[in-house]
Amino acid sequence: MQFPPKEHRTTAQIYAAIANYCRIMDDNGYWGQAEYKFDYFRIVYLAFGNGLCGNRARNKYSTAVKRKRSLKPSDYAVCGEFIADHVQREWLNGRQPSPNQEGMLRDLTLWWDEWAYAWDKNPIPQFQFPRNRQDNPPPT
């Protein structure tokens, strides 16, 4: 799987990248394998860096609500619950998941929430998100 493109900067693009990841993993591999898990981590990294998950996303949503805009929280934030809903629609097309697919979805949503929570609580000082560079690699 290739690194998600730089243009994954909106919630819709992140949800699409996650659905694509699920399609690829469903056909080609085990999502818990380190290499594939790192591909997913990169999607989370992009979302967090662009303020689409964690406290920054919640703050954006709260500000928009105060301005009395009618909107859905999933338009401002990506979290495990919203990922599960989106993937059910986009990847599974509303059909019942197999036990393997169910396990993958459970793990992916759990990882997302855990990583976003960890970064909110313990930010890494050198964790910077270059916005004008060609690539946006995760920290090592």
How is this fold's topology laid out?
Elements: H1 11-28, H2 34-49, H3 55-66, H4 80-90, H5 99-121
Helix pairs in contact: 1-2, 1-4, 2-5, 4-5
Explained architecture:
The chain is built from 5 helices and no strands. By secondary structure, the protein is mainly α. It has one domain. Helix 1 packs across helix 4 and helix 2 packs across helix 5. The longest helix has 23 residues. The two termini are about 20 Å apart.
Characteristics of this structure?
140 residues; mainly alpha; 57% helix; 0% strand; globular; disordered N terminus
Strand content: under 5%
The helix content, as a percent range, equals 55-70%
- Could you report the average pLDDT, rounded to the nearest whole number? 77
In terms of per-residue confidence, which ranges show pLDDT below 50 for 5 or more consecutive residues?
1-5, 129-134
What structural class do helix, strand and pairing data support? mainly alpha
Global Rg: 15 Å
For the sheet with most strands, the description reads: none
**Run of helices and strands:** HHHHH
Find the count of extended strands (DSSP E, 2+ residues). Answer: 0
Q: Please, how many helices?
A: 5
Distance between the termini: 19 Å
**What's the structural domain tally?**
1
Shape: globular
